[in-house]
Amino acid sequence: MATPIGNAADITLRALALLQRADLVACEDSRVTGPLLKRYGVGTPLFPYHEHNAAKVRPQLIEKLQAGAVVALVSDAGTPLINDPGYKLVRACIEAGVAVTALPGASAVLTGLSLSGLPSDRFLYAGFPPPKSAARRRWLAELGGIQATIVLLESAQRLADSLADMAAVLGPAREAAVARELTKKFEEVRRGSLQDLAAHYAQAGAPKGEITLVIAPPAEQAAATAADLDTALAEAMARLPLRQAVDEVAVLLGLGRKPVYARALELRDGQG
Question: Which residues, including other chains, have CB under 8 Å from residue 201's CB and lie 6 or more apart?
C-alpha cells in the first residue's frame, strides 16, 4: 500500500483502514513509518523489511501470511516495489499461493510526470542513474533513443553533475523538468533545457529535498551530415573509450550504431 511522499494528508481512507486491521506492518524504517501511524492513531506492530534483511525475513513473513495473518507492506514514502525489495515478497506470495492486493496512492514518479508539462502518454521510469560519470553516460546512452518521456530519481548532491552528463549524452536542448519537495510546503518544479538546468544547479549548488527528474522524448531532428558525425565522434573519442563514444554519438545524432562504429574505426585508424 502507498504512503505519502511528503504531505502526510496524502494517505487514503482505504490505506488507514488496512493499517488498523492488519496484524503487522512490514516497513523499510520504523523511524519513518512509526510517526505516520502515530499521527493517525494506528497501533499495529511494525516489522522491518528492507534490502539488507529481505532474504532473511521474507520466509518469516510468508509463514505468517500462510497462518492467516494480514500483512501491510509499505515503503518509506510513495508506492512500494519502486526501488525496494517489495516485488520479491510479492513473487514469494504468489509462489506460496498467498493472496496479494495493492492499495494505490501517492507516487513521486507520477506526481513529477504530471507537473513536468512533458508528454505523459508514453513514459519510462528508469530509477536512479549510476553514481559515477562514466557509468552514468553509458547508462544514458542506452536510454537516449527511447521514444518516451523518461522519469528518474536523483540525489540532490549529484544533480548538477548528472544533468551535465545528460546534456552531453542526450543533447543540450532536450527539455526536462526538475521537481523537488513534491507535495510539501516548498514544492518546486524548474523546467528548461538540460543545458540550462545543468548550468543553474552548477551555480546554485545542491537543492534541498528529494529530486524527481523528468526528461522529454528525443525530438525529431534533421539528418546528421558527415561533418556533424565526424565532429561529434572526435569530441567524444577524445574523452571516452571507443565503444562508449560510439554509443553516445549514435544517441546524440539519432543514427544507427553500426555506421557510427564503422566511421569511428576509420577516424581512429586515420583512414578518413
Answer: 159, 160, 163, 178, 207
